[in-house]
Amino acid sequence: MVTILFYSAFTTDLLNSIKQKKQVIVCLTISLMIAFISCNLLFADTKPLNIAMILWRGETKAEHGFKDGLRDLGYPVQYRIEDAGQDRKEVARVLKQLTPKFETFHYIYTFGTTVSRTTRIILNNSVPQIFNVVTDPVAAGIVNSIESSGGNISGVSDSIPVAEQIKRVLGLINFKKIGIIFNPREKNSMIIRNEVYNTARVFNFEVIDLRSPPANKMLQNNLQKLIDKSIQVDAVYLPADSFIVSNAELIASYLRRAKIISIGATKEYIEHGVLMGFVVNYYQLGKAAAKIVDRHQKGEMLQTIPIEEGKNPYLVINKTTCDLLNIPISDAVLKEAILFD
Predict the structure, then answer these.
(1) Which of 236, 259, 270, 274 is nearest to 324 (CA)?
(2) Strands 49-55 and 107-111
């Protein structure tokens, strides 16, 4: 009799346990289904950001970083990409074409000083603007200050003070006379030129202007003068000027032939044969621009988001050019630098 009672109790407990487990499983299943449906509904309601990208010289690593940054932050995005091809008239045409459609975009992304400044004027705060790779947005009249833009705009600067770049190079190579190849039609280039002159007074070297606008083969003529020594300099500085950057390979080939030290403000120069530079990472600038969009989406006003500035500059050296010019660089520096052939 005791055995029967024990068996009965055991059976009852077992059935109750199974019943409770079934209830738990059912509850879990229902919860998962609700969560799955909610996620799908949320995803379905998430409309992609509509962003127009107005570029100066095609897509660069800055734009790749911006796109990857927004993707990594979880934003679906529809892009409209317009490339001005380094043509001011094309910038005007693109902006005229987009003006009636500005309100359909969540953001207007702009690359470089020329495009960003012109777009800023046309937009007049009507649509959020995110600029990228602008060396001095305050001096260019794009924002009021680094701390506060003063409008419906924010962005990222690729600025590394010229003095910091020159000081880094002077720690490796001595020179007394430096030429600066620049496009006088670019406001950005004129700002940098002034910085070079200010730096020259600090470090006691002479500066020679090599004005090279995109006309009358001025760039090629100046490069030829460096080869035939009608213009004599120890080194040449190449600013973050889109026209000059787009001719990096041509410039590097001439400067190699002239056996002149060359210093580039962007990594593209060194990739194409310029000797060295102290530069920022364009891809990371793009990701920084994406974070500004994220902050704005989460409720911050663009005018209160400080302008991001290039961080962690690094030394890049073209080893082939270094060997060609017989420049002695220590093993310690070569290990620290990023090298290109």
Answers:
(1) 259
(2) parallel
Q: Is the pTM of this model over 0.70?
A: yes
Query: Is the sign of the CA dihedral 274, 168, 326, 339 positive or negative?
Result: negative
Residue 26 is predicted with a pLDDT of 43
CB 153, CB 302: distance < 8 Å: yes
Give the C-alpha separation, 92 to 297, whole Å. Answer: 29
Residues 235, 170, single domain; the answer is: yes
pLDDT of 255-281, one tens digit each? Answer: 999 999 999 999 999 999 999 999 999
Instruction: Determine the distance from the C-alpha atom of residue 195 to the mean position of all C-alpha atoms in its chain, rounded to a whole number.
Output: 21
Query: Rounded to whole angstroms, how far apart are CA atoms 169 and 214?
Result: 28
Q: CATH number of the domain that 112 lies in?
A: 3.40.50.2300
153 lies in the same domain as 242: no
* Residue 176 belongs to domain spanning: 162-279+314-340
Among residues 92, 99, 143, 144, the alpha carbon closest in space to that of 118 is found at 92
**Among candidates 4, 5, 312, 44, which has minimal Cα distance to 160?**
312
Tokens of 3: 């055995």
- Positive/negative CA dihedral, 106, 129, 54, 278: negative
User: Three-state SS for 206?
Assistant: strand
- DSSP string covering 160-192: --HHHHHHHHHTT---SEEEEEE-TT-HHHHHH
Phi, psi at 313, each rounded to 5°: -65, 155
The pLDDT tens digits of the residues spanning 17-31 come to 545 555 544 444 444
Contact (CB, 8 A) for 134 and 140: yes
Helix ranges (DSSP H) in 46-139: 61-72, 88-98, 113-123
Give the chain's length: 341
